[in-house]
Write a structure and sequence with these properties.
- One of its GO terms (molecular function) is structural constituent of ribosome.
- This protein is of the alpha+beta class and 79 residues long.
- The strands form 2 sheets. It has a two-stranded antiparallel sheet. Strands 3-4 form a two-stranded antiparallel ribbon.
- The relative contact order is 0.22.
- The protein is 18% helix and 35% strand.
- The two termini are 30 Å apart.
Length: 79
């Protein structure tokens, strides 16, 4: 299984709040108001659509900003 097939397996068929590189997805927790009333909520990762080089060809990936900042993605400059 090559890298692109792994990305497709992680991503699935629909776009979701999941990073194609590290697989980071949404976390769940509570919103707590000043009066300490608690409501369930979802914390989505900061996903950006980036053009990157995958196996020598440029592709669009959904990548979290942590992976972009830590240079886990080889960006395609288009030059």
């Amino acid at each position: 299984m090559n890298d692109f097939e792994k990305l497709q397996e992680i991503r699935g068929k629909n776009m979701a709040a999941v990073c194609d590189v590290c697989g980071k997805g949404p976390g769940f927790g509570m919103s707590v108001s000043h009066s300490h009333r608690r409501n369930k909520r979802r914390f989505n990762p900061n996903i950006q659509r980036v053009r990157a080089i995958v196996e020598g060809t440029p592709r669009h990936l959904n990548v979290c900003t942590k992976c972009i900042k830590s240079n886990r993605v080889v960006r395609n400059t288009g030059r």
